[in-house]
Amino acid sequence: xxxxxxxxxxxxxxxxxxxxxxxxxxxxxxxxxxxxxxxxxxxxxxxxxxxxxxxxxxxxxxxxxxxxxxxxxxxxxxxxxxxxxxxxxxxxxxxxxxxxxxxxxxxxxxxxxxxxxxxxxxxxxxxxxxxxxxxxxxxxxxxxxxxxxxxxxxxxxxxxxxxxxxxxxxxxxxxxxxxxxxxxxxxxxxxxxxxxxxxxxxxxxxxxxxxxxxxxxxxxxxxxxxxxxxxxxxxxxxxxxxxxxxxxxxxxxxxxxxxxxxxxxxxxxxxxxxxxxxxxxxxxxxxxxxxxxxxxxxxxxxxxxxxxxxxxxxxxxxxxxxxxxxxxxxxxxxxxxxxxxxxxxxxxxxxxxxxxxxxxxxxxxxxxxxxxxxxxxxxxxxxxxxxxxxxxxxxxxxxxxxxxxxxxxxxxxxxxxxxxxxxxxxxxxxxxxxxxxxxxxxxxxxxxxxxxxxxxxxxxxxxxxxxxxxxxxxxxxxxxxxxxxxxxxxxxxxxxxxxxxxxxxxxxxxxxxxxxxxxxxxxxxxxxxxxxxxxxxxxxxxxxxxxxxxxxxxxxxxxxxxxxxxxxxxxxxxxxxxxxxx
Length: 582
Ligand code: ADP
Hints:
Helix content is 48%, strand content 22%. The protein is an alpha+beta fold.
């Protein structure tokens, strides 16, 4: 009868075990799971109280994660000393423990007696998952309320084995979840960093930004950032270009013999030093921890980010990985700003060169032109026909040269922002009349028809009259050059919203689609023979585009090969532009 009862209760307990075990997989929330485990254990074993401890993976310390009928203070207090000893033992041996009198139990002898504990029946089982002990479960009962037996311990062990797996899974999940959240946070941060870095092409600002981020995000106390360069003795040194709290003249150059720099250069990787001596410190000041991360481009070290902290354990693995990723970003930004500086310097040099050359060429050309005109005018005696012809060739070529010089200095002035515009209100139709009369001779030479279609009562435009005339001259003279004899040129001027719109239409050779894509770029000239027969440098349209845009308009071209071209540009109306008050 008693045996039957025992079998029955055994079965009931197994069923209960099955039930609670089945619930374990239902949650991946660690706190929720631990509470479920503790409740199940109390329910299964009928224990009065109990707690569950997990081992911290980094420090190896046991920490109470859930408890029933006993608070954290009690667990930490002296009255539970023996319980903690029991747990420690279960964890270190990996064996479950059952005892009715811990004090007399040989395994715990020698531990200080604490009132009450010897009156208790204790069970403790390690939590084992994936071959590692991750913690333990402890339960106890006062002796008069029930003594645990072997079966109770088996049941507890069976359950804790299941529970340990579920706990480990939840912990892994939480870690992965946290790692993922950190990664997302980092990516968002890097997006911001990239945006900031890309905004700036100023090297010092880039270096300052990188250093600030590195310090803030690793919680460092300070740091420096430097780039490798050649010194006057032709030796490579690390020139510190920014350091927290340092003024410019305090920034030193670090020799490649410096132990930490030398190690970074050989290993091409980060060097983390603890208890940093003066010799090891990149900035020459001893500190508790130093993290030196190379800035690399195509595998070559080009600079160094150094962070310092007064706490020896300040830099964790994830901080190092973060600064390394930041250094990759920094490398790109540094290179961009260096390239930009180089381009700017080259641009400045080019601009200065062109100014000098165009100026120097103008002086002798003026005198050549003067003497040629004198000779052609018969000032030095009569000329033979051949002499006249030769001198005319000299004069034509001089004109070509002066067009080139004028165009080059225009481009130079536009690009360097030195082109001056005299903005004013004026009548575009009047300017057009002047341009047309100056070009009439060339048009007539080629027996071309020139039509003007100007809308009546056009309002005034606001622009630089001379520059608009330059645009008109260029477009009409191109129409003249690239339209065969007897062709037609039409200039239409009309209103288009807040602009006056000018169309220069010709029935000329037209421009292929491929060439249209390169139109308006410097030195572009089509390969067509009809183009090459005409003099030109391919600079006119690029200047025209810049002039039109600088005065608030736009220019486009529509053309079909063999049929003709239409160049259209706009100039803002005087009453549309906000003009400066006089
Ligand atoms: P240039 O006339 O000195 O060559 P431009 O910059 O004024 O320089 O023009 C560039 C090129 O565009 C010309 O060489 C020619 O190939 C093409 N082009 C310009 N205007 C016309 C046009 N009206 N018809 C056909 N091609 C043109």
